[in-house]
Amino acid sequence: xxxxxxxxxxxxxxxxxxxxxxxxxxxxxxxxxxxxxxxxxxxxxxxxxxxxxxxxxxxxxxxxxxxxxxxxxxxxxxxxxxxxxxxxxxxxxxxxxxxxxxxxxxxxxxxxxxxxxxxxxxxxxxxxxxxxxxxxxxxxxxxxxxxxxxxxxxxxxxxxxxxxxxxxxxxxxxxxxxxxxxxxxxxxxxxxxxxxxxxxxxxxxxxxxxxxxxxxxxxxxxxxxxxxxxxxxxxxxxxxxxxxxxxxxxxxxxxxxxxxxxxxxxxxxxxxxxxxxxxxxxxxxxxxxxxxxxxxxxxxxxxxxxxxxxxxxxxxxxxxxxxxxxxxxxxxxxxxxxxxxxxxxxxxxxxxxxxxxxxxxxxxxxxxxxxxxxxxxxxxxxxxxxxxxxxxxxxxxxxxxxxxxxxxxxxxxxxxxxxxxxxxxxxxxxxxxxxxxxxxxxxxxxxxxxxxxxxxxxxxxxxxxxxxxxxxxxxxxxxxxxxxxxxxxxxxxxxxxxxxxxxxxxxxxxxxxxxxxxxxxxxxxxxxxxxxxxxxxxxxxxxxxxxxxxxxxxxxxxxxxxxxxxxxxxxxxxxxxxxxxxxxxxxxxxxxxxxxxxxxxxxxxxxxxxxxxxxxxxxxxxxxxxxxxxxxxxxxxxxxxxxxxxxxxxxxxxxxxxxxxxxxxxxxxxxxxxxxxxxxxxxxxxxxxxxxxxxxxxxxxx
Length: 702
Known about the structure:
Blueprint: H1 20-35, H2 45-58, H3 68-77, H4 84-94, H5 109-126, H6 132-147, H7 175-192, H8 208-218, E1 247-249, E2 261-263, H9 268-275, H10 286-298, H11 309-322, E3 328-330, H12 331-339, H13 356-368, H14 398-415, H15 435-438, H16 451-469, H17 484-498, H18 504-517, H19 531-543, H20 565-584, H21 608-626, E4 680-682, H22 685-690
């Protein structure tokens, strides 16, 4: 029986709309968020940041969006798992009218393959039953999209599977394994159902690498840890593979007292593949407990990777701190971030390999939180030209290298004694150590002899490599995010802070690109204006504003510190327009009303806490700038607790709409905002610049 046979009229009563509940839930959420949109004075940035930071500690999973690809894998591999019907409903609700799932263009390929295979497997598993018409119709639309439109018109940006080439496909993790695996699975279904038009692989792609991994697993040998995140691609060879050892995840609230969950590659799909068909009866398995916990947490659908607390905490805290948002950080959060960094670095989640990106962001966040440690674990990722995300990486990431530059640059700055902040035992003269240092939770020791020069040399190497990767228009692109605005923010800010005079032209080019690409409504976005991308643009414009601090406060005056007056005026107007646009696109909690998935994993995803932190940071910076009387509007834009020189605020008539009333923020010279509990580290700008404890490595090499 083919897919079309299940669509024949008269064979059964027309079923209810199985995806309706998820569509109504999504529509209701949008309406609720729209109703909560705030006026300019309604967002308490500091208060929302406190709530966000508290959530980072309270939620050990991390806040990432569910994936059509990953959810489809559980529909196919684990129909016995709690929430199966809800996962099918989610897939039906998430399909677009053109038959695809997921992001635009080539981003649709992996989720469309995954969802289509899952729905065909569901049809074959149950045969004729109520609801099959909708499932069969969605599967047929998915197949048509994968083959290309019957009329030959094609889907904009997505020519179909066989017509796709290397330029049509994004650089996504494991795409070279996922696409051949799912194509073969769908073709197997079609042959069994009597359809004789198989799908063909995109040009330049084959299954050679997938076959090699399957052979290795079948032999009982171990595979690289990064492969485990996509273990579901190897099929039956994954089930109980002796070379795969699940990673324990203790103390999850969703599991019973004393019970330990276990993840395979931090991936629900990989865990289901490792359990295999026997997972239905193995209710006591730690991996089964992990899957039940994830499915219960999301109500059926699942994300590509969870938990990802280390990843989420490092990024969220660094966005807040870099922007100078005043918020107290609990000691437990600081020490947890520190403890996650082992000799080989930090992993984004349990079962994932340590990587240079998560490690460098955590190290940078710790430095900004006044508990820096030597970033020596990052040397493992150094190549002749740059730093890799992990050993064996195919390709290179500008944002990973920008984050390493942040970590090395800030460490070298502190260790060299710039500003007189770092002293023996890490406590500056006349300043209190951070509570984490004071309590002994994080120790502080003097910088090791000769270490600074090595980091300083690496800063020059990284800066030159990043400048060489800049596009002709002034932007950067990256393999871990779909938007050039994210990549450009990461690279431009790192070069501004640590790239020296040699990076001045690169930073100015990035600013010009931002000014040239602002949309009519004041927003920024690669495909359409988004709150997330607007936040990145605003932070870049405000944190690279002309600087004129005295040398003792900052070694370099700022790579973009000599922009001409006309450029300053353009920047002023752009900031005012961008601020209004950002306010119009977020709720009263600083959350985007519309939240497209832009981050790269096996499927695109949306990390809610990280994006919210970037938005709150942008709002904080813009408010501090726009609430100052002219000509000192951007004179007090904090970066790592330091202040920038003025340039004039545009008059109301120079912008496209009247400026909103200024919002009073706490004085930048006021004492640090501390929680009533002493075990908190404040990220208030003033305290960070005057009392930064210099954590140093111990003799054991940590």
